[in-house]
């Protein structure tokens, strides 16, 4: 079977097709296609509360392109999900209705709790008996979850994200609320507390720290390494970030604001080290599609292969 998931974020839109292969009761998730398109919907929404006509037109064209890919790959099931930019936009539902009418695709505009639950579905395999604070940084929002012995004991979404921070639209009151929430809830976790970071920026920070990934070891990075990468990137011009560090243009300007969020939450929680698994909302969506199309999924083993960059 083939499943497709589209994550309509605030900084970019991600499209993924995954083939599900079965061998001896083991299901292998093989990624066939991955497209990350830099359409920054949050740039409009967080400043003007709506998506501009120009970006709306480009968005509809992109949805038509994805629909064509669904047909070419002969996908069995798919889902399109939008997060903070579209849910906060005054014309987000209107644009979603237009896509449904012109393209024949329904877009689910989900809230922060639903977004966190979908990511947690795939994050569970990374957990053990330790205490973790999960930090998922998007363009418009940050989702925090606290896990103790594989159980989620607290969760909250905050209107703090890389695009908001880049444009100085992250309210100090929201930062204070986030710090207080972590302070009030981290006592539920036994020390030491470790962080888990998801989102495209932490994956790139990990890469810039020259850390390698091993099949046998969980990828992790110390907070001082994150701070070192932030300092290195912040000292460079936007052009040098693109040409020297080989960052995408829409990554080069948000990576420093995003690192502020990861570092701040780790400090609030007293976490000195962060796991950096290669997963995100799109992976949670693929697993949701798998579960709604398969029977007895709790009795199977799932293996993910051929990971693409976020």
From TrEMBL:
CDD domains: ASKHA_NBD_PPX_GppA. It comes from the Bacteria. Residues 29-287 form the Ppx/GppA phosphatase N-terminal domain. It holds the Pfam family Ppx-GppA. GO terms for molecular function: pyrophosphatase activity. InterPro entries: ATPase_NBD, GppA/Ppx_hydrolase, Ppx_GppA_N. This is Phosphatase GppA. It comes from Sporocytophaga myxococcoides.
């Amino acid at each position: 079977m083939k499943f497709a998931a589209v994550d309509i974020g605030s900084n970019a839109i991600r499209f993924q097709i995954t083939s599900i292969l079965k061998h001896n009761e083991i299901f292998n998730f093989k990624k066939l296609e991955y497209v990350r398109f830099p359409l920054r919907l949050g740039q409009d929404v967080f400043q003007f509360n709506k998506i501009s006509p120009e970006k709306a037109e480009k968005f509809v064209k992109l949805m038509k392109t994805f629909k064509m890919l669904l047909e070419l790959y002969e996908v069995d099931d798919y889902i399109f999900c939008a997060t903070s930019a579209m849910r906060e936009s005054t014309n987000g539902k209107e644009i979603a209705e237009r896509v449904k009418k012109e393209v024949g695709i329904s877009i689910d505009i989900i809230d922060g709790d639903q977004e966190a639950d979908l990511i947690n579905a795939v994050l569970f395999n990374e957990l053990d008996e330790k205490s973790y604070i999960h930090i998922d940084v998007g363009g418009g929002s940050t989702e925090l979850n606290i896990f103790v012995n594989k159980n989620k004991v607290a969760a909250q979404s905050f209107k703090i994200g890389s695009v908001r921070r880049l444009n100085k639209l992250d309210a100090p009151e929201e930062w204070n609320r986030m710090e207080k929430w972590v302070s009030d809830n981290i006592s539920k976790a036994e020390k030491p507390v470790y962080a888990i970071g998801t989102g495209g920026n932490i994956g790139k920070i990990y890469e810039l720290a020259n850390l390698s990934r091993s099949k046998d070891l969980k990828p992790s990075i110390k907070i001082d390494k994150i701070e070192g990468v932030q300092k290195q990137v912040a000292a460079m011009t936007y052009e040098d970030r693109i040409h020297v560090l080989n960052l995408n243009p829409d990554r080069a300007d948000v990576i420093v604001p995003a690192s502020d969020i990861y570092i701040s939450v780790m400090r609030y929680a007293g976490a000195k080290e962060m796991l950096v698994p290669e997963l995100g909302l799109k992976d949670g969506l693929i697993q949701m599609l798998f579960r709604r199309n398969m029977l007895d999924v709790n009795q199977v083993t799932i293996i993910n292969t051929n990971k693409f960059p976020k």
